[in-house]
Amino acid sequence: MTAKKWTLTALSALVLTACGGGDSSSDSGGNNGSSGGSSDGSAPQITLNTVTSNWCGIEKPKAGVDVFVHNSTGDIIAEYVTDSSGGLTADWPSNAKHLTLTANNQSYYNDLPTLTVISHVDVEAGDQGITYFWDDNDQAGCDCKYVDFPVQSLIADAPDSRLYLGGSSYELTAFSSSPTVEWCDGAGTMDVQLIAADGQSSLGGSIDLTNKTEYPLSLNDFTHEGVAVDYVNPYDARILYALSFDGWRNYSQDDLVFVYPTLTNKSYVWPARYGQEYIGNATADSYSSARHLVTAEGETSPIMLWDPANGYSDAVYALFNEISTGKAPYQYDFTGISNVAMTHMTLSGDIDNGDAEWTIWGGASGSMPDLKLPTALDAKFDSLYSARLQIGVRGYGSEKPLSEWRKLLVERSAMAGNEISVLDYETNYMRLSFDLEQ
Hints:
By secondary structure, the protein is mainly beta. Helices cover 12% and strands 41% of the residues.
C-alpha cells in the first residue's frame, strides 16, 4: 500500500469535501531494485546502525533490518540489509531522496510481532545515526524476579505519605499492604521516593536489589532531598510529570512535583493534555505535551502547550485536501503553528499475523512523496483492519532546516548521556489520531 493509497483511505474515512481523482506516474530514474551492503567508496554513502532493546532495556545490535532507498517520486532504487553488528555502509545513488527501514518488533503483551516500517523523506548522504527496535520477549541478562517491600516501618515514621517504587506509586496508610514489584537486576538500581503527606516535601533514594526477593523499606533508604519544580500546571493539562530518564518519576495534577538534583542532572518536567478536535466531519483524539529541562533549583523555562486549534487542525485538513487530488508529491506546511522541527504520519492496525505500523518522517513543511514498498510488504498494509491514522508534529524551541535537526538527532544517538542533548532542553509534541472506517 503506497503512501498515497493509505492516506486516501483516510480521506474516505474522514468524509472531506474536496474532490479526489487522478493518479501519479513515476520514473524510477535508474538502478531500480539493486541490492547490496558494503560500498567501494566511489559514490556518496550512508551509514546507519540498528539496535534492539530487550525487556529490561539492555541493547544489542539488530541484524537483518531491510533498508530501502527511494528516488524523489518514491520508487525503490536500491535495497540493503544491516549486517550482523546492526551496521550498514552503502552507496547513496545520485538520484536518492528518501529512506525506509523495516523489521519486526516484539511487545510483551502480544504473542505476535509488530511489523514496523520507518520512512524518512528528504534524506542527505552521511551518517543516519541509530534506529531503535525492541523485543520485550528477550530477557537475556535481565535476571527478573518479584520483590516484596515490607512498609510497616515507613507507615510508622511517615504516615499517609506516598511511596514511589520506580514508576509505581502507593499510599502509605495504616491499612496499606506491602507492595510486590517485578524488578530486573539487569536494569540496575531501583529509584525510590517518599512524598510527604502534605505534598510539600519529598525524599528520594536508589536501592540495590541484586539477589534480593524482599527489601524492608525504612527512612534510611531515602537519602536525597527533593526540590519542588517552580512551575504551574496549565489549567487544561491532565497531568504533570517530574522525571528522569535514569528511572524515577512522580506526578500530580494539582500538587507539587519534585526533582532530585543530587541524584541526577537529567531532571525534566512534562505536562500533557488530551482532548478531541473535529477535522472535516471526523472526530480526532488530540494529545499535546512539552518536556523541559529543570535546573538544580527546580526552575524551568516557561512552558506553553501547543494547541491543536491554533492552526494545526487547519494544516492537517489542508494536507488531506492536497492528498485528495491524487497527484503526488503532496505539499504540507505546519510552520504556522510554532517552531516545528519535524512531522510524522503513522498508519497502524492489525494484520493476520500480528499488527503493523508505518511512520513517515519529514520536515515542518515540504512535500510527501508516494512512497513505494516491496509487493509482499505492501500487501501487509493493504490488509490492515482496525486501522488508525496519526499525524504529529515535534519541535525543539527554535527554527533550523530539517538537515540540521537530523544532524543533532544523530549526535544525540551517539551520546552516552543522550537525554541531556541540546534537543532535550525543551521539546514540544502534538498529534491528532483518527480511527479509520473499513
